[in-house]
Amino acid sequence: MFRYLSTHPHIFMSDPKEPHYFNTDYANRFVTGSDEYMHLFDAAGERHAYVGEGSTRYLHSQDALHNILEFNPAAKFLVMIRNPVEMAPALHSQAVFDGYESEFDFEKAWRLQFRRENGLSVPAICLEPKILMYGSTCLMGQQLRKVLGAVNRSNVCIVLYDDFSVDTGRSYRQVLEYLGLPDDGKEVFQTVNRNRVYRSRVLHGVLNSGRRIKRKLGIDRDLGIMRLINGCNVRGGAREPVGPRLRDEMVEYFRDDIALLSGLIDRDLSHWLGVREADSNER
User: Fold this and answer.
1) CB 78 within 8 A of CB 159
2) How far, CA to CA in Å, does 211 sit from each of 26, 126, 219?
C-alpha cells in the first residue's frame, strides 16, 4: 500500500519507507534526529496534499502514538490489519531475512520469544529484542484499541489485509476516498515484497558475523560488497507451513484478541481461527 500511495500525484511518501522516528522505545530506529526526519520530506511540494511514511513498528510501540500526536495532533493513521496467525510467521521470515533472527525454524523462534522477552537467547546482531516478540507484535486488537482510544475515529483508516489481497484496487481506492483525493486511475498493482529466503544459510551466517565485527570495531562505512553478496544469496520462495499443533496453539493465543478486534471494527473474523489466507507468502 505504501508503494501504491507513493505514486499518487498528491501524496509524498518518505524514503526510506520506515524511518521509525517516533517509536523511541525501540533501540534500532533508522532516523533519530528531528532535523534528519524533517529532511525526509524536503522534496514534497505544493501539489502534495499529504506527506507520510510507513514505519511498521509504530502500532506495537508504547511511545509512537503519543509522539506522533504531540508532533501533529491532526495526523491521519492508516492501519492495515492481518490475521495474526498468518502475520507472526511472516514477521519471523522478515526478521530472518533482515538478519535480526538467528533461528530459522519458526516454531523454535516462537518458543524462544518468551526467553527473549527477559533478555535471554537474543542474537548478538539484534539490537532490539522487541522485533523478535512475534506474539505481542501481532495483538492487533489491543493495539487498535489503543489507537482508537487516543485518536479521533475520523482520523483512522483501517484496511484488512484479506480485502487488500483479494481486491487491491478496491482497497487502494477506499484509502484515496478516505483521504478525499481523486482516483489516479491506477489499474496495475504489482506484487511488492514477496517472501524471500536464502540460498545458503551458511553464507548468511558468515555475513551476519561480518556485520557484528564491523559494529564492534565501530566501522560504519559500507562499500556495498556485503550487500551485493547477500543479494546474490537471496531468492523468492514459499515459507514453511506452520504445523497443526503450533497453529492450534497460536489460535488459542490470539483468540481473545481476534474477538476484541472483531468488535472494534464490527466485522466477523472468526474464520481467522481456522482458514488460511489465500496467499500467506506475501508480506
Assistant:
1) yes
2) 20, 11, 9
* Dihedral Cα 149, 32, 228, 95, nearest 10 deg: -30
> What is the rounded CA–CA span in Å between residue 109 and residue 103?
6
Closest residue by Cα to residue 80 from 132, 3, 182: 3
Rounded mean pLDDT for each run of 10 residues along the chain, 283 residues in total? 96 96 95 96 96 96 98 97 96 89 95 92 91 97 98 97 95 97 93 61 56 52 56 64 94 98 97 65 44
Q: Count Cβ atoms below 10 Å from residue 81 Cβ, excluding itself.
A: 24
The C-alpha cell that represents 43 in the structure block: 522534496
DSSP string, 130-146: GGG-HHHHT-HHHHHHH
3-state secondary structure of 217: helix
pLDDT at 274: 84
| Identity of the amino acid at 21 | Y
The number of beta carbons lying within 10 Å of the beta carbon of residue 93 is 22
pLDDT the model gives residue 177: 97
Site of grid cell 481486491: 167
Half-sphere exposure (Cβ direction) of 106: Cα atoms closer than 13 Å: 23
237, amino acid identity: G
**DSSP alpha helix (H) spans, the chain:** 2-6, 34-39, 64-71, 84-98, 106-116, 134-137, 140-150, 161-166, 168-179, 201-217, 225-232, 244-265
Question: What is the second-level CATH architecture of the domain 2-83+137-194+251-273?
Answer: 3-Layer(aba) Sandwich (3.40)
